[in-house]
């Protein structure tokens, strides 16, 4: 693949967007069909704080420190080089617009913007920001789009304070319709971003990347009304769309991870690392684009919910490893196991866990590898 060292880069997180809703958004669907589309990308943590810190570091949460809702200030900033720091050293003007100063690492940004979610007009605000940056020689811009997420918080979390055994889990069709009602605004936003690149005459020299940090429950599993509690595919199997000017569109159906975004962007700009970057755990996605024989990548996910059957906001306590179309889940607090055949049971309804299975023992070994690599203390290690 060519070097794009002189191209602008716009990285946009559609917070909480479900992959199965892309085709309900005509503009986003068209962008998907005319770009590199990673259909089997997985988040390494199904909630925003841990997920986005992993995107900006290329590391798993327990490696970079943000490994719990209450650990948002535990980022190991003195020991980690972030993506914006690398881009800044490579001549990029770096900017962001986010909902809160704790959502992503601050290191490496020339410009740091925070919006008021209650009053923000994302289309106006973000197109104006792109207009301003279009005058720079080259820039990196991270945009946090939270409109869909905001409505879901209001309608599901803030409005409904009843116990988790209410009718939410028996109302999947209604939950789908509620979510669908927020999609037109999201699609209009995507269209406005694309139009602004053309209007400001930078569309032919800008790499545009859309991704989801996690998915959202519509009531699939008892105990999870939103996200961050479990590691089922409706929240961990997300997506990424890379629109690179003059590139031939391609659907990449190889399993990959959100920690792979960092090394991919680094490779696109031809960055030769001078920093100590051996701690990066992600791998560039470019081999998955260029090599038809490239292999699927292991997926390891960690989380600890604010609510649910075993809340753990101080320390992750739910883990999974996923490869070869199967997934092993370990719930540390009750010390229970789940094993799913994702090809034949994509909704993860039939738990096939058998402690005597040779196949499952192989998955356990792989899970233990990631727990040890990231120095995660669980009951398995005690």
Structure, described:
The structure is a single chain. With 382 residues, the chain is an alpha/beta fold. It folds into 2 domains: 8-290, Alkaline Phosphatase, subunit A (3-Layer(aba) Sandwich), CATH 3.40.720; 317-373, Arylsulfatase, C-terminal domain (2-Layer Sandwich), CATH 3.30.1120. It has 12 helices and 14 strands. It has helices at residues 26-33, 48-57, 61-64, 83-89, 122-133, 147-158, 172-180, 183-199, 233-236, 261-268, 286-290, 358-373; strands at 8-14, 36-38, 41-42, 93-98, 111-114, 139-145, 206-211, 240-243, 250-252, 256-257, 299-303, 318-323, 326-331, 336-341. Strands 5-4-6-1-7-8-2-9 form an 8-stranded mixed beta sheet, with helices on both faces. It has a 4-stranded antiparallel beta sheet with strand order 11-12-13-14, covered by helices on one side. It has a two-stranded parallel ribbon with strand order 3-10. Helix 5 packs parallel to helix 8 (183-199). The longest helix has 17 residues, at 183-199. It starts with 7 loop residues before the first strand and ends in a 9-residue tail after the last helix. The model has no long low-confidence stretch (mean pLDDT 94).
Average pLDDT: 94
Unreliable parts: none
Biggest sheet layout: 8 strands, mixed
State the total count of DSSP E strands: 14
- Going across the major beta sheet, what is the strand order? 5-4-6-1-7-8-2-9
Number of helices: 12
Morphology call: globular
Structural class: alpha/beta
Which band does the percent of strand residues land in?
A: 15-25%
The portion of residues assigned to helices is: 25-40%
Highest CATH level, the class of the largest domain: Alpha Beta
Rg, Å, rounded: 20 Å
The CATH superfamily title of the largest domain = Alkaline Phosphatase, subunit A
End-to-end distance: 46 Å
Taken in chain order, the helices and strands follow as EHEEHHHEEHEHHHEHEEEHHEEEEH
Assign the CATH architecture of the largest domain: 3-Layer(aba) Sandwich
Count of separate structural domains: 2
Quaternary organization: single chain
Protein name: Sulfatase N-terminal domain-containing protein
Family: Belongs to the sulfatase family.
GO molecular function, one term: arylsulfatase activity
């Amino acid at each position: 693949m060519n070097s794009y060292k002189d191209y602008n880069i716009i990285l946009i997180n559609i917070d909480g967007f479900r992959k199965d809703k892309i085709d309900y958004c005509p503009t986003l669907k068209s962008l998907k069909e005319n770009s590199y589309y990673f259909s089997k990308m997985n988040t390494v943590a199904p909630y925003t704080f841990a997920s986005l810190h992993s995107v900006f570091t290329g590391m798993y949460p327990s490696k970079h420190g943000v490994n719990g809702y209450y650990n948002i200030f535990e980022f190991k900033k003195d020991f980690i080089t972030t993506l914006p720091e690398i881009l800044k050293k490579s001549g990029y003007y770096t900017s962001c617009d986010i909902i809160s100063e704790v959502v992503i690492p601050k290191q490496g940004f020339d410009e740091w913007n925070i919006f008021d979610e209650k009053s923000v007009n994302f289309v106006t605000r973000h197109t104006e920001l792109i207009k301003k940056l279009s005058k720079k020689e080259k820039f990196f811009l991270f945009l946090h789009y939270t409109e869909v997420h905001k409505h879901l918080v209001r309608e599901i979390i803030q409005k409904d304070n009843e116990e988790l055994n209410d009718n939410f889990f028996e109302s999947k069709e209604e939950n789908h319709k509620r979510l669908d009602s927020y999609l037109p605004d999201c699609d209009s936003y995507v269209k406005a971003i694309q139009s602004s690149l053309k209007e400001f005459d930078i569309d032919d020299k800008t790499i545009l990347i859309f991704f989801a940090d996690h998915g959202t429950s519509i009531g699939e599993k008892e105990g999870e009304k939103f996200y961050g509690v479990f590691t089922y595919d409706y929240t961990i199997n997300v997506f990424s769309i890379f629109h690179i000017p003059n590139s031939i569109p391609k659907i990449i159906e190889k399993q990959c991870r959100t920690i792979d975004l960092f090394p991919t962007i680094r490779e696109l700009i031809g960055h030769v690392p001078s920093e100590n970057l051996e701690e990066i755990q992600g791998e560039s996605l470019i081999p998955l684009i260029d090599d038809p024989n490239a292999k699927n990548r292991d997926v390891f996910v960690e989380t600890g919910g604010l609510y649910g059957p075993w809340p753990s906001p101080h320390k992750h306590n739910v883990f999974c490893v996923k490869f070869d179309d199967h997934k092993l889940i370990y719930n540390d607090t009750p010390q229970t196991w789940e094993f799913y055949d994702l090809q034949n049971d994509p909704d993860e309804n039939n738990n096939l866990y058998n402690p005597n299975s040779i196949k499952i023992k192989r998955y356990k070994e792989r899970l233990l590898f990631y727990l040890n690599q990231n120095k995660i203390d669980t009951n398995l290690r005690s």
